[in-house]
Amino acid sequence: MASDETPGRSKPTVSVVVPTYQESTNIPILFDRIKYALKAEPWELIVVDDDSPDGTSSVAFALAAEDRRIRCLRRVNRTGLAGAVIEGWMSSSADFVAVIDGDLQHDESILPKMYEALAKGSGNLAIGTRLRDGDLGGSLSPARQALSDMGAWFFRRIAGAPVADPMSGFFMIRREIVSRLAPRLSPDGFKILVDVILSAGGGLKIVEVPYVFRKRNSGESKLTPLVGMDFLGLVVHHASGGLLPIRFVLFASIGAVGLLVHIVALSAVLHWFRMLGFEAGQLIATILAMASNFILNNEITYRPYRYSGPSLVAGFVAFALGCSVGVLANINVASWLYTADETWWVAGLAGALLSVVWNYAVSTNLIWRRRHR
Ligand code: GDD
Ligand code: MN
């Protein structure tokens, strides 16, 4: 063995997990900066990459061949920021685990401060809080800032925790806590911190370490303001005692929007194009509602698996076919219940519920199952 270290000695004290998708140019820089920031304690950087086509995992593996402080998990046919972070944490044996973005937007130089706060017991969760005044660097658009502020305010109300920046994607926590919470955390969202705090249900001692949020170094953001919706999904998920998955909440809300689209479209046809007749109106309204459901689910609910460009057409056709079965089931169940002497609205509601569950199952398991490149 060429190693000069004692075999079996010294596990890292801190594991810093970095979820990555298309960050090949940023990872070597991040690793260098963390080496500089975290001199004292034994630490490791765990890159959890969702098989990025730009070869992020190859870059990380090459670094790992030279330096054991970095390792990489290449996940295949899977995607999702939160899930990647959770899996990285689950592979750690350190006392503390952290998460940091791979695009250098987070200031790694505050990692020692986070560590100190946890090590000396001032807290068991240290959050990197983005400074809002001074030079935020204009890295958040006004619209995104407003949305983020609203979400944060709402979060403080429901969580009862005075956290300035719950949407932060940069924090450190005692591993034993996430280890206990892990089975209850949602792999589908982006707001992993919100999930951790809500899952812990109080009892966390939170410390905040302010830093200046930077502009993304290279590559592009995978998140849009629409992704803020996953925050609402998380909130309802927790309110339902963990019963409803985030994605189901989003899917059902978008279904409600689709219903609205349907009614508006139908009444518009009946009003302005009466000569087309009710059946044609119903058909047009159905297609528009399906299109709205498809587009919104594609952008929000299943964003990591999103169809784009020419594949959009194939995706929409598959979705429409899948949903038609849901519509038939809806009509059949509703009429069966109705003839079995149920009240009209109970029958209607049962039918609608059945089709939402059906469409959700089809969408999750068949339509948006893998990344479309
Ligand atoms: N493994 C994996 N899988 N990593 C991903 C995925 C994915 O599906 N999607 C994004 N990432 C990685 C990116 O490569 C980056 O390292 C990090 O997750 C954050 O993604 P960005 O695309 O840079 O997100 P952002 O800058 O728009 O959002 C950040 O700020 C939000 C608050 O405004 C993130 O920190 C969010 O977590 C945070 O909520
Ligand atoms: Mn970013």
Summarize the structure.
The protein is an alpha/beta fold and 373 residues long. The protein has helices spanning 26-37, 56-66, 81-90, 111-119, 142-159, 175-181, 192-200, 229-239, 246-272, 277-301, 311-339, 344-367; strands spanning 14-20, 43-49, 70-74, 96-99, 125-130, 171-174, 206-211. Helix 11 (311-339) packs antiparallel against helix 12.
Proportion of residues in helical segments: 40-55%
Specify the structural class: alpha/beta
**Beta-strand content bin:** 5-15%
Strand line-up in the sheet with most strands: 3-2-1-4-6-5-7
Report mean pLDDT, rounded to a whole number: 89
The topology string of helices and strands comes to: EHEHEHEHEHEHHEHHHHH
Shape: elongated
Q: Name the CATH class of the largest domain.
A: Alpha Beta
Biggest sheet statistics: 7 strands, mixed
Radius of gyration: 24 Å
